[in-house]
């Protein structure tokens, strides 16, 4: 039996002034109560109780121990009640990082609704496209697009994130519709300059064959929003993550090209957080909230 349980038995004996009374109160036998008091006295190497056939009373040392033990048990009970309350009413800081454009378009509303529902959580949301390490950069929750390196971080998948070839009807009328990846070499394909990758399209066809084609274009930008706007205006073909173009496709402002080919490798959106056997309720609730929100992304609904 653990020490805290023994202390609780001792406090009950002093309050009841008998082993039998404490045993009835605790649902134990008198002999079991007596045995635990003996074990406690042996651990402390001091006599805590004076025993007679009719009465049990604390010794001087026992009286001191009783007052401290009683207060400690009350503090422990209050701590447990506070923890249970936190599960129902989470509070405390929560630092979150979203990718810039995905966050603005689809996640800021999610964060705002969480803040309204849980006003005692101090939510700190950052939107940027730099690589965020939850541990080294001090974030509790990080949403990341793309493949994940092996790490000790906990992850949950939020949604798929296909990169799609899109162009406006105006561009297609002027320049024609590409019918195969090789046709892209003769088209104006808008270039993303936010990384060092060469301007090419890597794809997988319906038969599972992987290929690549070099591209050329008249406009470059390190902003996906800029490239999406240029595609809507008919400047050229854009290859962009689905969250940039989903609403434009739905509204008919853009058309999805070469639909029997997938941009390769495929990518997903994940939420990352630091491992902890006992995750704070505020973190668990926020991650669950993100997962529910992502299930309603327009490209996930089908």
How would you sum up this structure, described in words?
- This protein is rod-shaped.
- It has a 5-stranded mixed β-sheet. Strands 12-7-13 form a 3-stranded antiparallel β-sheet.
- The protein is an alpha+beta fold and 302 residues long.
- A hairpin with a 5-residue loop joins strand 9 and strand 10.
- It folds into 3 domains: 86 residues, Orthogonal Bundle (Arc Repressor Mutant, subunit A); 105 residues, 3-Layer(aba) Sandwich (D-Maltodextrin-Binding Protein, domain 2), CATH 3.40.190.10; 101 residues, D-Maltodextrin-Binding Protein, domain 2, CATH 3.40.190.290.
- It starts with a helix and ends with a helix.
- The mean pLDDT is 92.
- Helix content is 42%, strand content 22%.
- It is built from 10 helices and 15 strands.
- The termini sit apart by 57 Å
Query: Structural class, from secondary structure content?
Result: alpha+beta
Low-confidence stretches: none
Broad CATH class of the largest domain: Alpha Beta
CATH homologous superfamily designation of the largest domain = Periplasmic binding protein-like II
Number of domains: 3
- SS field, number of helical segments: 10
Q: Describe the sheet with the most strands.
A: 5 strands, mixed
**At the third CATH level, what is the topology name of the largest domain?**
D-Maltodextrin-Binding Protein, domain 2
Fraction of residues in β-strands = 15-25%
SSE order, as H and E?
A: HHHEEHEHEEEEHEEEEHEHEEEHH
Radius of gyration: 32 Å
Going by CATH, the architecture of the largest domain would be 3-Layer(aba) Sandwich
Q: How do the strands line up in the largest sheet?
A: 4-3-5-15-6
């Amino acid at each position: 039996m653990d020490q805290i349980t023994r202390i609780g038995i001792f406090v009950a004996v002093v309050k009841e002034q008998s082993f039998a009374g404490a045993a009835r109160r605790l649902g134990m036998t008198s002999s079991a109560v007596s045995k635990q008091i003996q074990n406690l006295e042996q651990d402390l190497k001091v006599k805590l109780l004076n025993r007679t056939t009719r009465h049990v009373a604390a010794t001087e040392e026992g009286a001191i121990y009783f007052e401290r033990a009683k207060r400690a048990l009350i503090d422990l009970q209050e701590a447990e009640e506070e923890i249970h309350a936190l599960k129902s009413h989470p509070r405390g800081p929560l630092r979150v990082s979203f990718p810039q454009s995905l966050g603005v378009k689809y996640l800021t509303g999610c964060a705002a609704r969480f803040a309204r529902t849980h006003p005692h959580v101090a939510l700190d949301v950052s939107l940027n496209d730099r690589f965020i390490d939850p541990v080294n950069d001090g974030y509790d929750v990080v949403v990341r697009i793309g493949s994940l390196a092996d790490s000790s971080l906990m992850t949950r998948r939020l949604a798929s994130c296909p990169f799609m070839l899109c162009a406006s009807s105006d561009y297609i009328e002027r320049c024609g519709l590409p019918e195969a990846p090789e046709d892209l070499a003769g088209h104006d394909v808008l270039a993303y300059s936010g990384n060092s990758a060469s301007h090419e399209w890597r794809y997988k066809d319906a038969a599972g064959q992987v290929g690549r084609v070099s591209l050329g274009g008249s406009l470059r930008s390190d902003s996906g929003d800029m490239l999406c706007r240029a595609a809507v205006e008919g400047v050229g073909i854009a290859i962009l993550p689905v969250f940039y173009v989903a609403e434009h496709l739905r509204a008919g402002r853009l058309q999805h090209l070469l639909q029997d080919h997938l941009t390769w490798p495929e990518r997903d959106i994940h939420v990352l957080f630091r491992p902890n056997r006992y995750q704070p309720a505020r973190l668990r609730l926020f991650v669950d909230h993100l997962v529910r929100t992502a299930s309603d992304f327009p490209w996930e609904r089908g």
